[in-house]
Amino acid sequence: MVIHYKLFEFAAFAAVSGNSLDTDKEVLLNLKSFLEEQNRVNRGRYTEWNERSSNPCEWYGILCSNGEARIIGIDLSDSNISGEMFNNFSALTHLQHLDLSTNTLNGVILDDLNRCHNLVYLNLSHNILRGELMLTGLTGLEKLDLSTNRFHGEVKFSFPAICHKLVVANLSMNNFWGSIDYFDGCWNLQYLDLSSNNFSGNIWTGFAMLIEFSVAENYFTGSVPASCFMENCTVQILDLSENKFQSEVPGEISICKNLCWILENRIRNFS
User: Fold this and answer.
1) Euclidean distance between the first and the last CA atom of the chain, given in angstroms as a whole number
2) d(Cα 13, Cα 231) in Å, to the nearest integer?
3) Using an 8 Å Cβ cutoff, are 151 and 176 in contact?
4) What backbone phi and psi angles, to 5 degrees, belong to 143?
5) How far is Cα 185 from Cα 205, in angstroms, rounded to an integer?
6) Strand partners for 205
7) Average pLDDT, whole number, for the chain?
8) Mind listing the domains of the chain with CATH numbers?
9) Contact 117, 95 (CB under 8 A)
10) The dihedral of CA 167, 172, 178, 179: what is its sign?
11) Considering the chain, what percentage of its residues have pLDDT values greater than 90?
12) Which of 47, 73, 128, 153 can bridge 132 by disulfide, Cβ–Cβ 3.0-4.6 Å?
């Protein structure tokens, strides 16, 4: 199941860091050179970034703060980018939105990204990134999409460390394993997609406080406790299909009045 939510629109080089639009522009020009070095043909529109232009806020895929004081967003989704990730995003000290989805980025997420402490939106979906997830520095994230990559390992190294403001998390179609109990501290979380991974053990009992939750195509066992379904249940879309549960979902599920429950390709509505 694909969880539906509206996303925000939107070789080595010398490290640059500063506190002005001019230094932000220099970082972007370094990023452009880095991408052109790794992508010799079929380049994206970042090639249009021009050092002779005095205002990088007018460049394709770039979003600036009010008054064009600093760069706060980069959207290079579907830009024919391959190779490893750029290692100086943290020099853009006001960066809030970063979208590199639908490319062929490979390798691991570099520690530099962990130093982008102002990020609220990160989309690296639909690449071929790998390695364990270590995002503990991104405590301001509200929306995270890492779906359709090759990440592996347990999620405990990032959750609940980055949960303080997190609303949307999509980790589907990777190779994560282990327990998912680490989401207990994610008080603002509403949409969680963990489908098509290798998670196992018992189901996380806090899922009924979300709006949408999918763990389809994993290896969960045991049963779904009746205690999950309380009077203040908010879950609307629940996908538990293609697991190894050993009993039916309890009748208390009917407490969740707006729920559309999807299990083994059968849909039942409770009202």
Assistant:
1) 22
2) 57
3) yes
4) -135, 130
5) 12
6) none
7) 90
8) 132-269 (3.80.10.10)
9) no
10) positive
11) 76
12) 153
Answer whether 64's CB lies under 8 Å from 70's CB. yes
State the pTM of this model.
0.90
Over residues 89-108, the pLDDT tens digits come to 999 999 999 999 999 999 99
Q: Which residues contact 129 (CB under 8 A, 6 or more apart)?
A: 85, 105, 106, 107, 108, 109, 146, 149, 150, 151
What are residue 143's DSSP bridge partners?
121, 168
Length of the chain in terms of residues written: 271
Other Cβ atoms within 10 Å of 159 Cβ, number? 23
Q: How far apart are CA 166 and CA 183, in angstroms?
A: 10
C-alpha triplet 95, 96, 97: angle, nearest 5°: 105
Residues 211 and 191: beta-carbon distance below 8 Å:
yes
Q: How far apart are CA 41 and CA 230, in angstroms?
A: 56
pLDDT tens for each residue of 136-184: 999 999 999 999 999 999 999 999 999 999 999 999 999 999 999 999 8
Give burial (CB, 10 Å; 0-12/13-18/19+) of 51. exposed
Q: Cβ of 251: how many Cβ atoms within 10 Å?
A: 10
Identify the helix (H) or strand (E) that includes residue 175.
strand 175-178
pLDDT in tens, 12-38: 344 555 689 999 999 999 999 999 999
